[in-house]
Amino acid sequence: MRTAIEISTAVNAGTSARIAVESSLAAAEGDTLNAIIRVHRARALAAADRVDARVKAGERLPLAGVPVIVKDNILVEGIPATCCSKILTGFTAPYTATAVARLEAAGAVVVAQANMDEFAMGSSNETSVLGPVKNPKDPTRIPGGSSGGSAASVAAGIAPLALGSDTGGSIRQPASLCGCVGLKPSYGAVSRYGLIAFGSSLDQIGPFASTVADTRLALQIMAGPDTAFDATSNPVAPVLPDLAADPVAGLKGARIGVCRAHRDGLSEGVKARLDAAEAKLRAAGAEIVEVAVPHEKYCVAVYYVVATGEASSNLARFDGVRYGHRAADPKDLHDLYARSRAEGFGPEVQRRILLGTYVLSSGYYDAYYKKAQQVRRLLCQDFASAFASCDAILGPASPVSAFKTGEKFNDPLQMYLSDVFTIAANLAGIPAISVPFGADTNGMPVGLQLQAPMGADGRLLHLAAGLEALGR
Ligand code: GLN
Question: Considering Cα of 294, then 300, then 305, then 309, what sign does the dihedral take?
């Protein structure tokens, strides 16, 4: 699969958009990883023809004819959106998410939808009602989650671009485990309109791609205010300068923060890759500075209060009345609610709703939700002081590379620790990216994470391009 930039360059020069779209459709139809859950052949070919007509009429489109795969929790008008949950079976999106609408307006073509953990809750893509996704590098292993289908699709070359959502790491962790680039933009950089909400103060839509340059292009198209539809979208778009021709040269003089705490619990291979990155960055002229984010150690605990609290509220709307699955022959309204939800939601989603309802209940609110928000504020202060002495913080995206399917499925606490390095960025709202940086001792891909201050998505991408070049 060619990159998004290569495809759009060719299409803008007169090559039919059908060529890239047909090849992506064929790859999606031939998917053996269970990464793809629905292919939209007729819709995609019609869109490709519209792109060709626009180019013929003289328009130049930044994503002309670029195939894109969309996670099943992001709405595209007229096609299903189910969050890979039984409760949304049969639901068709009534409108298109702003992020998707902007990609399509720029010439991108939605070819298929990607598998995911149910309601984006999971780190291995094993909670999907449509079954687990296989890692393209080793089908006995998980691709990461919750955007496992999106990451696997890009890593397997089904499409050059995919969209995911990241509430606690769901873009960066699967990108790291599959060997592609995954970006969680600053909170508010990309509109959440049309993203089915999980934890609204944490959720962001972001791109997967095979290169940092494609990632930057996708963000540039999607980002920017959406005042009519998302009150939390940032009123100013991030400034995303073109990447330098020599991204390694741009690392000279950059101050890269590293945390001692980021070395705990890593696999040998991940640790070795982190050491290698540090050494290569130094050799490229970057200054490595020791920084501390002391409250990061509470992140997993804080996240499972904040995210579950918000999820219990957001998922209250799925009650068998307005959306999706409805229990048969209810005795009364309460029975309809209780059975529709018990039948429609899988065990992990039910666990989160119960936890979230508990932490928000009166009498416990101050002890859990309020306390978690206070720790969250302290975490933001930690980042503010860390970023006073560095431009970005380098660390692992995941403590380990892709594990075996089934290995952690029955141990939720072990599973929750998969996101120990990614959650902080969601709690603080800062941008963070996972960039491929070689392989673990078992041969599976390793991604390293860079985190930057709120709004510094452009600077983050420049440094990520440097890191990407060093990792090749
Ligand atoms: N793995 C985390 C969870 O299970 C993060 C999920 C996400 O970012 N959507 O909640």
Answer: positive
